[in-house]
């Protein structure tokens, strides 16, 4: 939101306070300022001058040499403009001025000195396109800057909207000035709500149907308007706040929005089909042209303004095009209303239309301003080119006219919450300055909230604490150490385990942790078929890609991998997160499950299956090392089948009877669906099951003291069928109870013409350790022979 300091000064004398102090008070006690800038400061050196003489350039057919004066000094200017003559008053950019990124210089054009440049409307930012130099009226003062001429000498504050989203009273110049006056102890001129306007008797035929769809709704008839451009004051103030001037009637509505924060709307009465107005809910498929030249198909239950049987506006959001004020308008109907913020928010969400009016309505306005704003609008219309209009009595209703909010509290509560021993006099003085009415009975306080803050803003005693705290300044509250017992925190095994696993993945092996939203699309929900039926739809509708709570962490990791696949050679990711599952439609809450998921993108070509398989084995070894790191060595890998894993490339890790983890290569069907160009190896670990096992067994010491003798190893290559599991021979060896056998794992898998079609060569590595003597050649041969014999006896072929 943009605020004009010049406009604020109209309501309270900010010029009496150093500007730095004003900015400091805003930042520390009211809201955040994003930017402070002098409006169009680059035009300070563009002045009004009068052309005294004009003659042809001696060396250029299309140029003219002119002499212009600012009243005290003459300037020689060379120009190509053909629309200027002696006696014209025009804007002159002096040397040093920057327009459209170019600096104006004192230079020579074809041998004749030019001390500046005459400007067009486009160059001054007054129009998108223009031809020729801008010529001012004959009575224009010369020798002044165009900033002063157009009332642009102003400082503009850009307020961070997020910091005032709970303060609808601050979304306008008068409300902001009122707040500054209270904080800086300045007087406040509250004339906008006290416009002295007399209405013509009668309603001029207008009527309003009372309904519960609005807090308040009024219309009044205004006759004999004349559509012209707005006066310079209104035009400049709208422009400084980022709103384009349209005409002297529509501009008044926008001016009121910026001045008082109360949206209004003008209808062309002669283009309306009826004299009756009502606030209704839309039916599915309703449609009418809007001011933005769109004709959207409306969903059910959007709030509409209806004239007779015809919809003429999206209530609180945007008016209709067919009833809009146009150049030929003579009679208008003014609307002043306050709608329920929930209804306006619903319309914004369903139509994706967000206007300045809607932004204010959705914060929750109070209806007490509806009638005073009509009087102020009439005053502005008269000042802005319509002095002879006839205005008839407003018609309508106000359901919340008598609403009031009174908060009961006491000094003990306020002091305890603030952490400061503040006096009753100081509390009363601060609250009264802020517009509250305070009644005291000893230490008990009864506080009547001002109407402009009673809706959703100040409603409970804690809100009063905030008002007092921000006014005295949080920096004035002394920091004190907490007085509390130092107790041993309750141990959280799951958090401990998660921290260990994350440390291993991030610090030990260099994987990168990612964070994804807990939302998913229907496509994402189908990845793990087993969980698709338990997907949970979000009631508060979101875009389709975020319409469900996720039932798997895999889609998020895959999307992250897709974004990074062309940027990095190595993409190794993991995520710790929850999935959500609701098995039936009963009233029970959905179940949350905790996982760590891992993704590693292959560095090799997708059709290089041998290399991809080696990467798969490396990740399997990494997960095995993780379980060793957690002091859980007694796990088993076994083959599995999952719809999202490639056939014959899926494993599960079990600990006893519990399935703790899975590992597999993403099926090419899903890789294509998510536009992955490289093979993805996926794994996930069930943290809730793992923590149970870790608590029971992870604290048991499996430490074996290192041997004094060197370690040995043996390799054995076997020829197997392509689909045969590599675990079968490893499991067989473990049953042989070889005392020196420390571990056995697959070292390499080879395929090629030399091993035959449908075959693979699997090399196993046996790590050997003796604790009583050094290995001898005889013992190595003995062990090697026993492994070969076991392989032959069980149908395995040596290679």
> What is the overall silhouette?
elongated
The description of the largest β-sheet is:
7 strands, mixed
Strand percentage: 25-35%
Number of strands: 39
| Helical run tally | 21
Task: Give the distance, in angstroms, between the N- and C-terminal Cα atoms.
Answer: 78 Å
Q: Which structural class do the helices and strands define?
A: alpha+beta
| C-alpha Rg (nearest Å) | 39 Å
Helix content: 25-40%
Strand order, sheet with most strands: 26-30-31-35-34-33-32
Task: Write down the overall mean pLDDT.
Answer: 91
Unreliable spans: none
GO molecular function: ATP binding; magnesium ion binding; phenylalanine-tRNA ligase activity; tRNA binding
Family: Belongs to the phenylalanyl-tRNA synthetase beta subunit family. Type 1 subfamily.
Pfam families: B3_4 (PF03483), B5 (PF03484), FDX-ACB (PF03147), tRNA_bind (PF01588), tRNA_synthFbeta (PF17759)
Subunit structure: Tetramer of two alpha and two beta subunits.
Walk me through the structure.
- By secondary structure, the chain is α+β, with helices and mostly antiparallel strands.
- The protein has 21 helices and 39 strands.
- The strands form ten sheets. It has a seven-stranded mixed β-sheet. The chain has a five-stranded antiparallel β-sheet with strand order 5-4-3-6-11, with no helix packed on it. A five-stranded mixed β-sheet has the order 13-16-17-18-19.
- A hairpin with a 5-residue loop joins strand 32 (636-639) and strand 33.
- The longest helix is centred in the C-terminal third of the chain and has 21 residues, at 609-629.
- The radius of gyration is 39 Å and the shape is elongated.
């Amino acid at each position: 939101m943009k605020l004009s300091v010049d406009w604020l000064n109209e309501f309270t004398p900010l010029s009496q306070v150093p500007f730095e102090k004003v900015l400091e008070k805003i930042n520390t006690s009211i809201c955040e300022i994003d930017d402070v800038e002098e409006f169009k400061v680059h035009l300070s050196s563009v002045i009004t001058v009068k052309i005294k003489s004009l003659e042809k350039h001696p060396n250029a057919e299309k140029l003219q040499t002119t002499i212009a004066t600012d009243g005290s000094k003459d300037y020689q200017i060379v120009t190509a403009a053909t629309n200027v003559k002696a006696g014209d008053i025009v804007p002159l950019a002096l040397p040093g001025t920057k327009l459209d990124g170019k600096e104006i210089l004192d230079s020579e054009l074809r041998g004749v000195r030019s001390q500046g440049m005459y400007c067009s409307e486009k160059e001054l930012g007054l129009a998108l396109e223009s031809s020729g130099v801008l010529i001012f009226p004959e009575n224009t003062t010369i020798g002044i800057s165009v900033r002063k001429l157009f009332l642009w000498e102003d400082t503009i504050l850009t307020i961070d909207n997020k910091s005032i989203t709970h303060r609808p009273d601050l979304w306008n110049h008068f409300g902001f000035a009122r707040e500054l006056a209270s904080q800086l102890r300045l007087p406040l001129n509250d004339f906008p709500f006290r416009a002295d306007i007399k209405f013509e008797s009668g309603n001029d035929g207008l009527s309003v149907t009372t309904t519960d769809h609005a807090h308040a709704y009024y219309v009044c008839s205004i006759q004999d308007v004349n559509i012209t451009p707005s006066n310079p004051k209104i035009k400049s103030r709208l422009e400084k706040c980022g709103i384009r001037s349209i005409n002297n009637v529509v501009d008044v509505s926008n001016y009121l929005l910026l001045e008082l924060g109360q949206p209004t709307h003008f209808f062309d009465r002669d283009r309306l089909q009826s004299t009756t107005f009502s606030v209704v809910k839309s039916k599915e498929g309703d449609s009418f042209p809007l001011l933005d030249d769109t004709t959207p198909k409306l969903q059910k239950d959007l709030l509409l303004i209806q004239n007779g049987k015809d919809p003429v506006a999206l209530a609180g959001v945007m008016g209709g095009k067919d009833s809009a004020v146009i150049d030929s308008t003579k009679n208008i109907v003014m609307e002043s209303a306050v709608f329920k913020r929930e209804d306006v928010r619903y319309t914004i969400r369903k139509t994706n239309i967000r206007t300045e009016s809607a932004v204010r309505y959705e914060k929750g306005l109070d209806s007490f301003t509806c009638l005073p704003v009509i009087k102020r609008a009439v005053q502005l219309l008269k000042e802005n080119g319509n002095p002879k209009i006839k205005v008839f009595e407003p018609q309508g209703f106000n359901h919340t006219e008598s609403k009031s909010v009174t908060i009961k509290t006491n000094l003990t509560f306020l002091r305890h919450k603030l952490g400061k021993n503040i006096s009753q006099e100081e509390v009363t003085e601060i609250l009264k300055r802020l517009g509250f009415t305070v009644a005291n009975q000893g230490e008990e306080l009864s506080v009547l909230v001002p109407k402009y803050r009673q809706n959703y803003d100040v409603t409970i005693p804690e809100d009063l604490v905030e008002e007092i705290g921000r006014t005295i300044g949080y920096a004035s509250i002394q920091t004190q150490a907490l007085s509390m017992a130092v107790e041993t925190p309750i141990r959280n095994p799951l958090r401990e385990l998660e921290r260990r696993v994350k440390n291993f993945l991030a610090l030990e092996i260099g994987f990168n942790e990612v964070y994804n939203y807990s939302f998913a699309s229907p496509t994402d929900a189908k990845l793990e078929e087993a969980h698709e039926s338990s997907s949970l739809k979000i009631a508060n509708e979101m875009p389709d890609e975020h319409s469900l709570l996720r039932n798997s962490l895999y889609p998020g990791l895959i999307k992250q991998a897709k974004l990074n696949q062309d940027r990095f050679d190595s993409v190794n990711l993991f995520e710790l997160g929850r999935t959500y599952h609701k098995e039936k439609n009963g009233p029970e809450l959905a179940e949350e499950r905790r996982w760590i998921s891992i993704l590693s993108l292959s560095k090799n070509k997708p059709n290089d299956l041998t290399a991809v398989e080696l990467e798969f084995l490396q990740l399997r070894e990494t997960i095995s090392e993780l379980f060793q790191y957690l002091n859980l060595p007694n796990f088993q890998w076994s083959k599995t089948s999952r719809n999202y894993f490639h056939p014959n490339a899926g494993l599960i890790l079990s600990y006893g009877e519990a399935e703790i983890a899975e590992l597999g290569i993403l099926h090419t069907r899903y890789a294509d669906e998510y536009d992955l160009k490289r093979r993805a190896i996926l794994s996930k670990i069930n943290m809730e099951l793992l923590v149970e096992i870790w608590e029971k067994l992870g604290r048991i010491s499996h430490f074996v003291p290192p041997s004094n003798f060197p370690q040995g190893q043996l390799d054995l290559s076997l020829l197997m069928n392509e689909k045969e599991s590599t675990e079968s021979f490893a499991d067989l060896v473990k049953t042989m109870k070889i005392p020196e056998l420390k571990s056995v794992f697959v070292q390499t898998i080879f395929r090629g013409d030399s091993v035959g079609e449908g075959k693979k060569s699997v090399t196993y590595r046996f790590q050997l350790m003796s604790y009583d003597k050094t290995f001898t050649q005889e013992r190595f041969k003995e062990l090697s022979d026993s492994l070969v014999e076991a392989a032959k006896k069980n149908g395995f072929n040596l290679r």
